Amino acid sequence: MKKKFVAVLLALCMVLALCACGETSAPAESAAPAEETASEAPVAGGPSESLTFVTGGETGTYYAFGSVIAQYVSANTNLSITAVSGNGSKANVEDMDAGAYELGFCQSDVMSYAHDGTNIFAETGAVDSFSAVAALYMEQVQIVTMNPDIKTVEDLRGKSVSIGAQGSGVYFNAVDVLGCYDMTIEDISPVYQSFGDSADSLKDGKIDAAFIVAGAPTTAITDLSTGSQVYLVSIDDEHIDKLLAASPYYSKYTVSADTYGMPEDAQTVAVAAMVIARNDVSEDAIYTFVSTVFENADQLQHGKAAELNLEFASSISSVPYHPGAVRYFAEKGINVG
After folding, report:
1. Which terminus of the chain is less hemmed in, N or C, by CB atoms within 10 Å?
2. Residues 212-253: pLDDT tens digits?
3. Residues 128-137: pLDDT tens digits?
4. Kind of pairing, strands 231-232 and 49-54?
5. CA–CA separation, 130 vs 111, rounded Å?
6. What's the pTM?
7. How many CB atoms lie within 10 A of CB 119?
8. How many other C-beta atoms can be found within 10 angstroms of the C-beta atom of residue 155?
9. What helix, strand, coil percent values describe the chain, rounded to 5?
10. Distance CA 107, CA 271 (A)
11. Do 230 and 224 contact (CB within 8 A), yes or no?
């Protein structure tokens, strides 16, 4: 009997021990909700801020290069950038001011007009909602024609000439170039078309020439030159000097003959292609954007990436830089104020 009692006692002890183990394992089951909660947390490195980048027409350099930049930054940082087509520098500034976009491309001259409330912004007044981010490359004033008899700007008198889409900065570039030859818009038959539409109209013989202000080579002109002979009208030294004296934001520039398979080089002027940002975009976001672009220029799959240069990027003085850009340039030993 004593042995049976001991056996029963040992059995009871084992049951109690198993129950105790079951009680201690209960919290492990309650850990499941904690794991589910953790899976709902933001993924490390995921987008922390999303920005829309307005560029230009789909056959222009703004759109092509802007799309490459947006894709690279989005793929390699926690900043999500979406590039969209736009209607030109003036329209980009106005749309950004209205809150439609956070980043945008803009010609340096139009950017200054907007900031100061002059020229193309004289009637609407100054826009103070944006800052400069960086100058990326030079964009040339390209006067394109398929007529070999149009050799100088003066030959545009009485001709049908596209001077850019409504809301673009091309109009004022055309006004400036014509002005240095003592001509006005009234001396031509102006047409307001995008780069792509201008190229189509030239091909179809609907216009005689077109002002296209974009980084060369420009897709619209490259496409036009495929199978057809195109020419760029040159501006001679005397008139370039006159233009620079009146409008110092231009720079003298030569477009080489092999750019579009032309018979000879073309001399013209250029302005800077700027990226601007709304002032209310965070400093961290703009720092991430500009540092990623310039630290990885060799990874950007576009010809204009080869022109990225810190000194040029930080050379603008007409418009204040965004704090995020100021921070990045300061790290590089460049003070942009």
Report:
1. N
2. 998 899 999 999 999 899 999 999 999 999 999 988 889 999
3. 999 999 999 9
4. unpaired
5. 9
6. 0.76
7. 18
8. 16
9. 45, 20, 35
10. 7
11. yes
